[in-house]
Amino acid sequence: MGRWPGLRQWLWIPGPLSPTQPPEQRWPAPHTPQHRPGSRASAGRPPLRSVIKRNWEYICSHDKEKTKILGDKNVDPKCEDSENKFDFSVMSYNILSQDLLEDNSHLYRHCQRPVLHWSFRFPNILKEIKHFDADVLCLQEVQEDHYGAEIRPSLESLGYHCEYKMRTGRKPDGCAICFKHSKFSLLSVNPVEFFRPDISLLDRDNVGLVLLLQPKIACAASPAICVANTHLLYNPRRGDIKLTQLAMLLAEISSVAHQKDGSFCPIVMCGDFNSVPGSPLYSFIKEGKLNYEGLPIGKVSGQEQSSRGQRILSIPIWPPNLGISQNCVYEVQQVPKVEKTDSDLTQTQLKQTEVLVTAEKLSSNLQHHFSLSSVYSHYFPDTGIPEVTTCHSRSAITVDYIFYSAEKEDVAGHPGAEVALVGGLKLLARLSLLTEQDLWTVNGLPNENNSSDHLPLLAKFRLEL
């Protein structure tokens, strides 16, 4: 997707507090990251700024003049929803749980302590959400006590309905999906727990949340929209768990988004996937297939540079009693009807049955039925420099995504696009991401004006009716 250099609108969210010291005195030098060629440590410290600039990028040239800019209240009425289209915006944002921040304080050595306090951070985060005014919010690392006391009441006062799923076990944070009452009605809420006490592989407490939303639009029948949000396991060396968690989320999406005619309604899948662009997990989401035979377990997410000493993914990755097929859909549990007694089966028939079952179980091919595209292209087209969604003392990479079921014209040439039975969305605009160098000019993340170690992702879609 191309970028449009014209029509750019610089956006900045001022923080609620303004320390009086000049920036040069206010910010200490950041902690030096280890083994990061091209990082701030090796390139020299860039001069610090106090603002971070992000511009709107319009994806389709014919929409440049017509697309409503989020937050712009002076909108031409003809840009609003009409009988044949429904426009909506989605934000995905890992807001950084305060408990996790404090448990991993080594990641924030570049920050002065005051900017890490929740009393400083939450007003910044809320101001950011309020400014962008997205129709749907997918939030990760939402701490339960903060959600109940501050986050949910604040968002409800802004016109949002909020749904929340806390992680299992003793983990105090979770995922939330919030949507504007004025834009959608809630059809169903479908939480997904990735922890399974009966499956040793699935011993982690990550979760997902899937909502089915009905657009509110007069004079037209509109399909529902399926919105999913998740935060997959971080551990770079456990790609088997990450892929299984993803398969569980896709199976729930398939169940929720399935329509009576056999097709799927439009899908938006957001979250922190703890995987980098081009990794096997990322490619599986976009291409709809993955042959994982011989794949080292630590290569799945692309976070590990070396696979030395790593075991290979087992075939199959997850056991049959999970109830999810290699096509990432729920399997219908059927009890076979036995009309003959065991003694009636010959030894040859028994062996043939065993071979068939073994062959099916040992498939190393994963598939899903959605044609999903990424809102972002992950590299700046002019320079090839990677975009970054998260930045702290140890890392500056992309792990956050907004995936969506694209219109047929948007997925031309994608493998399997011609057979996809998915309702399509058109991507109209996205809020640009930044480079690692850009982020270190404001002392990385979090900083005085950006109060998470992740950037919010923001996209505007159109559903043609």
Structure, described:
With 465 residues, the protein is an alpha+beta fold. 19% of the residues lie in helices and 22% in strands. It contains nine helices and 17 strands. The strands form four sheets. Strands 1-16-17-2-3-5-4 form a seven-stranded mixed β-sheet. Helix 6 (239-257) links the parallel strand 8 and strand 9 (267-272). Residues 1-43, 61-79, 353-359 and 412-421 have low confidence and may be disordered.
Class per helix and strand makeup: alpha+beta
* Uncertain ranges: 1-43, 61-79, 353-359, 412-421
Q: What is the mean pLDDT?
A: 83
Q: Order of strands across the widest beta sheet? A: 1-16-17-2-3-5-4
Distance between the termini: 24 Å
Number of helices: 9
Tell me the strand percentage band. 15-25%
Q: Which overall shape is indicated by the principal axes computed on the Cα atoms?
A: globular
Helix content: 10-25%
Key attributes of the depicted protein:
single chain; 465 residues; alpha+beta; 7-stranded mixed β-sheet; 6-stranded mixed β-sheet; 9 helices; 17 strands; globular; disordered N terminus
Task: Briefly summarize what is shown.
By secondary structure, the chain is of the alpha+beta class. It is built from 9 helices and 17 strands.
What is the element layout, followed by pairings?
Elements: H1 23-26, H2 40-43, E1 56-58, E2 85-94, H3 98-103, H4 118-132, E3 136-143, H5 144-157, E4 160-166, E5 173-180, E6 184-193, E7 207-215, E8 225-231, H6 239-257, E9 267-272, H7 280-287, E10 289-291, H8 347-361, E11 365-367, E12 372-374, E13 390-391, E14 396-397, E15 400-405, E16 426-431, H9 436-440, E17 457-464
Parallel strand pairs: 2-3, 8-9
Antiparallel strand pairs: 1-16, 2-17, 3-5, 4-5, 6-7, 7-8, 9-15, 10-11, 12-15, 13-14, 16-17
